[in-house]
Amino acid sequence: MHKISNFTGQARHGWERMTPTFGMSRPHSDMASHSLRRPHGAPPMTPPTGIDPTVNLSFNVPFSSTLGGPDVDDVLHASPGALQRWTFPEGTLEGTPVHNLPVHTSNVEALRRLCRQITESSNGRIEAVVFGSEPKSVASLQRRPQGLVTNVCITGEGETVRKMRARILNETPILLHLDTLSAYTGTDIFLLSPKLRDNDSAVVSSYGYASDNGLDQRFRVSIYGDMESAEHAKTRVLIMIDQILKRHVDAMKLELTMHTLVCGRTRKNIKLIEAATGTAIYFPPPFPRIFGYTPPGAHRRSEDEVYITGDTQEQIARAKQKLRELVMGVKIYVKDVIVNSNKIDNILLDRLDKVRKVMEMNGSYVLFPQLGSQRGLVRIQGTEVLHVERTVREIMALVRSTGFMLQAFG
Predict the structure, then answer these.
(1) For residues 63 and 374, what is the distance between their CA atoms, to the nearest angstrom?
(2) E strand or H helix at 362
(3) 352-362 and 341-350 are packed helices; what angle lies between their axes, rounded to 10 degrees?
(4) Tens of pLDDT along 51-75?
């Protein structure tokens, strides 16, 4: 068992400051014999010898270009401009690829403008070019991959190139998601008519939402936007519905990295509090610091603000008190791992949903550096040593599946 620092006294006073740490990948077989005591500071870095040469860096910008808009016949109401962005203009040929929707083409064009701006403002030191192409057929796949592959190629001094990569990733609306609930922050909103109920959803009838004609009687709200905005929007719509039902709304502050720890494994602690007090508790998204993009004119949700709704203020007050009692009783155990910084970016772009499931199942928190920051330190926190160790193992298994290893120290 690796030694893990116990930060019991810091449960209510924040965390020790995370020092950006860099390191190289180490095979797992070497980790067992490596001393796992926590260093007092960041490991020293050896300054590079010689002049950083000109490099060419090519990377993918993962636009969700396979994401289609809603069925126009289902739309009862759309936010201003949303229908025009997510549907093809009249006269568009049938079979036109989804990635030619106005919203997707405008994202690519905005990326081209950003790269031109970077190139023109660098006085010839940096050149950034965007390449887009449809994926080629793969023999092992039964059908051709869909979507548009968008890559950026940057040429220039190594350190400047890496900084420009981080800037591009953090100023681009990557990782678009479709959610069934929506709200107001920098997103496109659609109110959709009820959908036909299939045989697999017959259980809906036990809740009184189905009718004899096979229609689910609930209207649907769909939102299109980047991942963080969609999460925020979903919460705002749920709160709006609570207010329509004449429920009271209040909020309390709780440090971000405490959220999943307080919730417990599979959110059991929060479920018990909600059942005991008759309230609904809404936590913010767990990764607000890793993506730098914010839609123009939009506002991010406060990362440490927890919303609580209830029929009475007394219910909300009881829920707040139970949350405070949970925080007071939390013991925090911490373990740090060092990962190749480029591989961290791969996790943030492709595997974040799986990391979130690992956190929820173990009641732990995984603290990543910001996308493109070239920092290699990942911190895992939990309320029990077993939960921290289990989270580390599952994160290690996840990153091994992408073809690299972790170097851990406790």
Answers:
(1) 22
(2) helix 352-362
(3) 90
(4) 557 888 888 888 878 888 888 888 8
Contact (Cβ atoms closer than 8 angstroms) between residue 350 and residue 62 = yes
Confidence of residue 403 (pLDDT cuts 50, 70, 90): low
pLDDT tens-digit readout, 305-333: 999 999 999 999 999 999 999 999 888 99
- Residue 11 sits at φ, ψ, to 5 deg, of -60, -35
**Cα radius of gyration rounded to whole Å, the chain:** 24
Beta bridge mates, 126:
156
pLDDT in tens, 193-215: 777 655 554 444 334 444 445 55
Token pair listed for 407: 């170097």
Distance CA 308, CA 285 (A): 15
Residues 391, 396: Cα–Cα separation, whole Å: 8
Nearby residues of 232 by Cβ (< 8 Å), 6 or more positions away: 183, 185, 284, 285, 300, 301
Q: Which residue is associated with the tokens 């602690």? A: 269
The whole-angstrom separation of Cα 255 and Cα 249 is: 20
Q: End-to-end distance of the chain based on CA atoms, in angstroms?
A: 10
What is the dihedral sign for C-alpha 265, 224, 178, 369? Answer: negative
Number of H helices, E strands in the chain: 11, 15
CB atoms within 10 A of CB 83: 16
Q: Kindly give the pairing relationship between strand 279-282 and strand 365-367.
A: unpaired
CA–CA dist 257, 264 (Å, integer): 13
| Secondary-structure breakdown of the chain: helix, strand, coil percentages, each rounded to the nearest 5 | 35, 20, 40
Return the number of other C-beta atoms located less than 10 Å from residue 366's C-beta.
25
Q: Tell me the H-state helices in 171-278.
A: 227-244, 259-263, 268-277
- Residue 326 contacts residue 269 (beta carbons within 8 Å): yes
The pair of structure tokens assigned to 222 is 């769909």
Q: What's phi and psi for 43, nearest 5 deg?
A: -60, 140
Mean pLDDT of the chain: 75
Q: Specify whether the CB–CB gap between 306 and 256 falls below 8 A.
A: no
For residues 297 and 79, what is the distance between their CA atoms, to the nearest angstrom? 15
Q: How many residues does the chain have?
A: 410
